Design the sequence.
């Protein structure tokens, strides 16, 4: 089980204040390479997660040998870029929300039971998610090198529009965290909790791990 601590953030529009409030939050690794025969690549990826009741805060840290950030429209195919993802199922619901973010902060948010039948968030709802990419928001064409980047996001409870949730305090949930990049020269598929499907598939809520919000 992953504990999600409560923090106080003075101003959600100031990323330095969020980072300061998360300074003592435990880091977690995306250590599972679930399909090593076909996709053995393993960038170094970790994340921190916390909440303030109204907002859920996620800070991803990535070291990889190739980056790409060309999708600029929210709810576009961000998974084809250098991408980090957070899938969350609240309470006992069979549904989950998939939040996906490219290295330049472009976002996708949808509500679904599985790979098919997604209901995407409206532009207004996705726009409520605050994103602070260390690389900025300009397009980054695919390039190889030695890259270190981070992405801080603040997701308001209202972004989980079908949940009826009004605060993250005391919430019980199941989730998984991912890193991918389908159109990179060397694609990779990392996760926080292991996935036992035959082929790469992050839309596998049966393999979510438990989250407990303070």
Sequence:
């Amino acid at each position: 089980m992953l504990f999600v601590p409560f923090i106080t953030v003075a101003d959600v529009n100031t990323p330095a204040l969020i980072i300061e409030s998360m300074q003592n939050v435990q880091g977690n690794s995306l250590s599972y390479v679930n399909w090593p025969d076909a996709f053995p690549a393993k960038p170094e990826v970790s994340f921190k997660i916390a909440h303030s009741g109204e907002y859920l805060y996620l800070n991803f840290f990535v070291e990889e040998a190739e980056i790409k950030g060309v999708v600029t429209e929210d709810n576009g195919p961000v998974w084809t870029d250098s991408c980090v993802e957070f899938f969350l199922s609240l309470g006992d619901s069979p549904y989950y929300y998939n939040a996906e973010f490219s290295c330049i902060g472009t976002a996708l948010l949808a509500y679904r039971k599985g790979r098919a039948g997604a209901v995407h968030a409206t532009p207004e709802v996705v726009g409520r998610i605050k994103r602070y990419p260390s690389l900025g928001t300009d397009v980054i064409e695919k390039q190889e090198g030695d890259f270190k980047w981070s992405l801080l996001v603040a997701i308001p409870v209202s972004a989980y529009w079908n949940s009826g949730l009004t605060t993250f305090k005391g919430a019980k949930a199941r989730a998984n965290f991912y890193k991918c990049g389908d159109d990179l020269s060397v694609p990779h598929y990392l996760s926080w909790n292991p996935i036992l499907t035959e082929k790469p598939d992050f839309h596998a809520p049966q393999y979510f791990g438990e989250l407990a919000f303070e």
